[in-house]
Each structure stands twice: as C-alpha cells, then as structure tokens.
From TrEMBL:
Its main location: other. It comes from the Bacteria. Its EC number is 3.1.3.6, 3.1.4.16. This is 2', 3'-cyclic nucleotide 2'-phosphodiesterase. It catalyses: a nucleoside 2',3'-cyclic phosphate + H2O = a nucleoside 3'-phosphate + H(+); a ribonucleoside 3'-phosphate + H2O = a ribonucleoside + phosphate. Pfam families: 5_nucleotid_C, Metallophos. CDD domains: MPP_CpdB_N (cd07410).
Length: 652
C-alpha cells in the first residue's frame, strides 16, 4: 500500500543532506520558525581575495558567506538577513573607492551593490563607516535598498535621545509575513535598532567633531526601545556594533553588548566589532554570557567573525497569542566558510556565489590595478635581512607610521603631552620561512601590496601607558632573541632559534644597547629565568638616562597590548587606546600622507661592545647587497649557512 507523508516528513526527505531544524519540525499552527542571519565586520571583503598579498584566499569573502545564506533561505519558510556594520572600509577595495574613484552623490559603492544583490533587509553603521568622512558615508548608504539604522549618533541632540535628530533612522520596524507550522501566513512586525561605539568621536574626531554627537549605547537603547514597542514591534533585534565586554554598564562603554542585552524589550542581540566568534570559547567564563548556548543575559545572541569568515544564525521558535508574537525558544550558532586542518592548511567549505562576484567584478579588477600601483615612494630600500641583528628600515617604517598615528589619537585626551614611543617587530625574518622569507622593496615606488611585506598580520593598533621602568623590562623581554655570548671568544652562534621574530620588539623613541655577555632575563615564553640579569644598558630618552618613573605612551598592536608574548607593561590594564584601524591601514595612510618616506634605520639600538668577540648568524643570500649599509654594526660574509641561508659574522 502507498506510504503517505505529511508536510514535515516530505520536507525532511526532499532536503537531501540538509537536516531540518527541530523548530521547523515541531512548529504547529500558531507557531513559526524564524531564522535570523547575520554578517558583521565584512570590511569590503566581497571577493575571496587578499589584495595585500595579491592572491586568492579561502578564508574571507561575502561571496562565500552568500552561499551559506542562500542555503538557509532555500531550506526555510521564514528568514531575515541583517548586517551588523563595518562594511565600507577595511581593505584596498574600500581605499580604492575612497581615495581613487570617489563617492559622489548617486554613485554606487561596491559593498552596497553586493549587499543589494544578496538581499540584506537592514544594517547598522559600524565605527569604520565614519573613516572617510560624513559625505562619503551618506553618499554610500544612499544607494542601499535596505534601511541603515543607528540610534546613538545625532546631528542635533535634544534633552533625551528620543528628542535627537539622528544621522540615520534610529530604528526600523519591518512588516513581514510568517508561515506557521500549519502553512498559514501571519503578519509580524520586527523592530531593528542599531548602535555604534561612542568612541567614534575620538577615532574620527577630524570628521565628526562639530558635525555629530555620539551617545552612550545603553542609555540610548533604554530611551528608544519602549517607543518601538509602543509602535507595535512584536520582537526587537539589536544590531550592536559593539563587542562583548564588561557585564556592568559603564557610561560611554565601547563594548556594551552585555548590558545592552539586559535592556527590557530587546529580544535578541547581533554583535560584532570584536572580530571574534560567538557562540564559542572566545567568551567562555564571561559574566552574563553562556558561550555554549549562545546567550547574553539569557537572550539569543551571535557574532559572525569578520571579513565574511562566518554567518551568524539565530533560530527563534515564535508563538502567537492575542498580544502578538513571543519567543518560546531559541538557538544560536556561527557557521564558518572554511575549516583549518591539523596541519594548518585551509579547506573551503563553500564556493563563491557567482552572482555576488559578478555584481562587483569591475570594481574588483580596478582594485587589483590600484594595489599594484604605487601609493608613495621610498628613498631607501626596505628590507629585513638584518632585522634581528641591527636597527632595520622595514621595522623603522612601521614604527614611524605607528608614532604618527598614535600622536594624533592622543590629541585632546588626558594622555596628550606624554612622549610617544613605538614598539614594532620584524615578521619576515627567515627562520622556518626559509632563506627567501624576507621583506625586500627597492628604492622607488611603494605599492599597497608591498605593505603586506612590511606587516604580515591583520592586527589593529593599540597604545599602552607605561613607565620608564616598564619600557626597560619590555626591552629585556625582547632581548631573549639572543644567546649568551662569552667575551673574547670568536664565532659564537648569536640567535636563539626557538625565539620567534615577532617577539623581538624594537622600541623607537629611546636609545639603548644590548649586553650579550649577560644571560637572558626572560625565556622565550616571557618567564623570568635570570632575575639578576640585565641585558639592556645605556637606556636613554632625549639623550639622558631614562627616568624609571616617567610615563610614556607606547604604540603597539592588539596582540601585544592584549598580553601576547607576556611582555612587561603590555596587558589590558595598561591599554589607553584601542584603535579601529589595522596596523596595515595605518602604514598605507602614512605613506599616502608623506608621499615619499625615508625609512632609513636610525640605529637607536646596538650591541654593547665586546673586545675580541665575534658572533655568527644566518640570513638570506640576497642580504649581501645591503651588508655595507647597516649602521651601528660591523658585518662581514662568513660563507654558506644550512638550507640555502648565507652566514654572516659580526665583530662586537
């Protein structure tokens, strides 16, 4: 006899390998399964392409995320797609549009074009939307086929947030039709409200001061959410371009998603800004957060990584009664576009959506031309062949750019007037990367893609406030790069092969010597192993011995300032500035502004002299062309090293 299938069984058997979500399987009449999809911090990464390295990659791209989104839509009766901000800036395509092509009234921004093609239904302004100025921002979002909201940025402020004249609408209420478990359609009103860190007033002061004002996120939410409910919103979703930070509300809080989730009337929170993944271990043991269940203050929440690496997904089981819809249950997850294997290789989990690629193909090709073209010039070679044994031009330009940027960011703050130092390390310095793994840019034009050679990682800029004593300890930690050298002996091995080059910080703005006769005070992990040892000698600032009590601002990156490498003085408690920009972006902006850079190393650090002593180190064979131009150290060729390296000698 024939087998009769009900609707749910039919869907389950025709979905192939797609497993029907339990909410869809269980929904009855008057119950509906709503799937909320999130992207966040796309930063103009539409194509799966690294414009800095000038090659395709499998770890980024809205075109890849689009395939996940289309899969959810295909298997769902009810879904909505929302973006959580930071879409206009963050890679060379964004810079190409801003600095090269421009955004006049009526122009189409490729990011908006791609978002229109994918069918986004709302977005919020992220902090990076303000990087290119208000006219650029407003001309860009004018082309959106979806509402862009932000409740806490106002052109004119009133006595309360509800009296503000906001830059864009504070919220929107979307009317949609839901299909319940019995196949019947019902109307639902979905409220979408958005927030951005008020720190935009510092980060983009030159664009915003005198033009807009930013309010506290939680204060603003408490004012607007009741009005959304009064206007008939059945559920309210907060687009929080704000990270998951302190549980307690602090006025002016940058990462306010936890107290925001606690605001009455908010049903779900889409987070971002932190470039992390939630649910997941990144926020394990965070008060107010269930990192496994994906809830903040008991409410469903999600954070979808960055650059299109993930799609955030909140599933709601909604029930309808005489008062409208309410959330009966929920789940959260972040679905990746790739998997990192045990051998660190990358396996893509989806292919690109060709419609999204085609929508911005012209701008992609123009961006490739842009990154391959010079943005400035250098009047000295940029190379890292001797970055571990002498002050180095490739590190120097990074330090120069960081100092330039942080000095601007400190203006108008309580830290203005403090000396600004800069800590930077060589990244491409041979080692396991091989004898060709070095930076080398000839004098002349610098293309944007060359910046990848100068700064490999997508770190963001940070600044810490520390004392002269902590500056010295920071340098002691860096000096673990070297083996202890016996005075008077010849051809001893200089470099500790177990010490990573990215932990060899050079601090510009002070002068110092490294006494190799001393043992390393810190080991490769940052633990004190020789408490009586002091390799850093003759440490001076402005020509005088450094005052241990004097305070300094040190420009660095989020990895170091967050405690990466266990450097004394570099930890979250000393952070006074968390920049919205990557170190790469800062270098590009610095080169553009300078026109021609002169990154010649200033030899602010050297080895302390040791009579009759020589040491050996290995570097790339191409170093020979630059050997005679290294200041502060005497280098000579010493034959071949292993595995294709060249060996050199230093007379201390």
């Amino acid at each position: 006899m024939p087998i009769l299938l009900d609707r749910r069984a039919f869907l389950a058997t025709t979905a192939g390998f797609i497993a029907l979500h339990p909410f869809s399987a269980r929904a009855q009449a008057g119950q509906a399964h709503l799937r909320i999809m999130e992207t966040t911090d796309i930063h103009v990464h539409i194509y799966p392409y690294d414009y800095y390295a000038d090659r395709p990659v499998d770890t980024v791209g809205l075109a890849r995320t689009a395939t996940l989104i289309n899969g959810i839509r295909a298997e769902s009766a009810n879904s909505i797609l929302l973006d959580n901000g930071d879409f206009l800036q963050g890679n060379p395509m964004g810079d190409y549009i801003a600095y090269e092509r421009g955004m006049s009234e009526g122009d189409a921004h490729p990011m908006i074009t791609a978002m229109n093609a994918l069918g986004f239904e709302a977005s919020v302004l992220g902090n990076h939307e303000f990087n290119y100025g208000l006219p650029f921002l407003m001309n860009s979002v004018a082309g959106a086929h979806f509402p862009v909201v932000c409740a806490n940025v106002a052109r004119e402020t009133g006595a309360t947030p509800r009296e503000d004249k906001t830059l864009v609408p504070p919220y929107v209420i979307l009317e949609r039709m839901l299909t319940d478990g019995a196949g019947k359609s019902h109307r639902i009103r979905i409220g979408i409200i958005g927030f951005v860190p008020p720190q935009i007033m510092t980060w983009d002061r030159r664009h915003l001061e005198g033009n807009v004002t930013a309010r506290d996120i939680v204060e603003t939410a408490r004012a607007w959410v009741p009005q959304m409910r009064e206007e008939g919103a059945d559920i309210v979703i907060a687009l929080s371009h704000s990270g998951i930070g302190e549980a307690e509300h602090i006025d002016g809080q940058e990462n306010a998603s936890i107290p925001l989730a606690g605001v009455d009337g908010i049903d779900a929170v889409l987070t971002g800004h932190h470039h992390r993944v939630f649910p997941g271990p990144d926020y394990a043991d965070t008060p107010g957060v269930d990192a496994e269940a994906g809830t903040i203050m008991g409410k469903p929440a999600v954070m979808a990584g960055y650059w299109g690496s993930h799609m955030g997904l909140i599933d709601l089981m909604l029930e309808r009664d005489s008062n409208g819809w309410r959330i009966a249950s929920h789940t959260s997850e972040a679905r990746p576009i790739y998997r990192r294997e045990e051998d660190r290789s990358i396996t893509p989990l989806v292919e690109s959506d060709e419609t999204i690629l085609a929508s911005v193909e012209e701008e992609h090709e123009a961006t490739l031309e842009y990154v391959r073209r010079a943005v400035g010039e250098t009047d000295a070679p940029l190379h890292s062949y001797f970055a571990l044994v002498a002050d180095d031009p490739s590190v120097q330009i990074v330090s120069n750019a960081q100092t330039w940027y942080i000095a601007q960011m400190m203006q108008g703050t309580e830290h203005e007037g403090l000396p600004v130092l800069s800590a930077a390390a060589p990244f491409k310095a041979g080692g396991r990367g091989g004898p060709e793994y070095y930076t080398e840019v000839a004098p002349g034009p610098i293309a944007i893609k060359n910046v990848a050679d100068l700064y490999l990682y997508p770190n963001t800029v940070r600044a810490v406030r520390i004392t002269g004593a902590q500056v010295k300890e920071w340098l002691e930690r860096s000096a673990g790069m070297f083996n202890q050298i016996t005075p008077g002996e010849t051809d001893q091995v200089l470099l500790n092969p177990d010490f990573p080059s990215y932990n060899f910080d050079v601090i510009d703005g002070v002068e110092y010597q490294i006494d190799l006769s001393q043992p390393a005070r810190y080991d490769k992990s940052g633990a004190v192993v020789a408490p009586d040892a002091h390799r850093i000698v003759n440490l001076t600032f402005n020509g005088a011995p450094i005052d241990p009590a004097q305070e300094f601002i040190v420009a660095t990156n989020n990895y170091r300032a967050g405690g990466g490498g266990n450097f004394p003085g570099a930890n979250p408690s000393t952070v006074v500035f968390e920049g919205p920009d990557t170190n790469r972006d800062v270098i590009v902006r610095y080169i553009v502004e300078q026109g021609t850079v002169s990154p010649s190393a200033d030899a602010n650090w050297t080895f302390a002299p040791m009579e009759g002593t020589t040491v050996l180190f290995d570097t790339g064979p191409a170093a020979e062309a630059y050997m005679d131009a290294v200041d502060g150290v005497s280098i000579e060729a010493a034959g071949d090293g292993p595995d294709g390296f060249a060996r050199y000698r230093i007379r201390l």
